[in-house]
Amino acid sequence: MAASARPHRLMRNLSAKIASLPMIFTALVIFIGCTAWTVVHSFTSSRLLPRTDFVGLAQYERLWSSNRWIVSIENLAIFGFFMMVFSLAIGFVLAALLDQKIRFESAFRTILLYPFALSFIVTGLVWQWILNPEFGVQSMVRSLGWESFSFDPLYNPDIVIYGILIAGLWQGTGLIMCIMLAGLRSIDEDIWKASRVDGIPTWKTYVMIIIPMMRPVFITALVLIATGIVKVYDLVVAQTSGGPGIASEVPAKYVYDHMFRSQNLGQGFAASTMMLLSVAVVLIPWAYLEFGGKKRG
User: Fold this and answer.
1) DSSP 118
2) Domains, in order of start, for the chain
3) For the whole model, what pTM was predicted?
4) Torsion of CA 119, 124, 129, 130, to 10 degrees
5) Best exposed site among 41, 96, 214, 238 by fewest CB in 10 Å?
6) Per-residue pLDDT averaged across 104-119, rounded?
7) Cβ-proximal residues to 244 (8 Å cutoff; 6+ apart), any chain
8) Neighbour count for residue 19 (Cβ, 10 Å)
9) What is the average per-residue pLDDT within 257-282?
């Protein structure tokens, strides 16, 4: 009798399941549905309005024959690599310094995190002024007597992406620092005491013990950084608008320009699909190794 009165498995936690329906609906209809719609229309010749006249891989052939798209991919690769490396390195070093219980820690933490509170447009405009050769860093240094000093990354097509990188690091490193600091504060103090008793140098304790223990924290930071890298757009528009020429183009700006300025939805959908594919190529193997391995274990 007791067993027959037990509710069916589908009826357990019914209120929680009902409460999750809006999120499930959003994921299925908005995310998955719109993604599928975009991929399907990337094989059409849609211009101002979506159409269903399929043209096969014509949009992708045109995409990869475009020098502007190739330049945007190269810029994203350079920006992404250095953004990941320097954000993690600088963020961890700053977090390790703040973890030493220094004076005015809360003030330093607020100052370092403050840039993250600004919009990317504001950050881009600020750094556009700072890197402007007429009244920025170059002008200030030359006014001190170094007349031959030259520093104009936003006006040099060979290094313009590094000028954008500087602004990105200035805004995003504070958040990574806070994430790392939270991870360091979660480390048991007994580990540090044991390493001191054993005479292990501080740097070796970080490298051999602390960093491996903070693996989930690093993964979280990497996901956040990668998300910002793929969708970088505001900084480029605010600082250079893609210039000089097309030297600072990025995929997100390519998609926006073709969909809303050139009124070429098919080409914009194809570029969006390639951005999605690049994320999936990295994300799916990582998710399989991260979660599939745990299930098998």
Assistant:
1) S
2) 68-296 (1.10.3720.10)
3) 0.86
4) 100
5) 96
6) 88
7) 155, 156, 157, 160
8) 10
9) 89
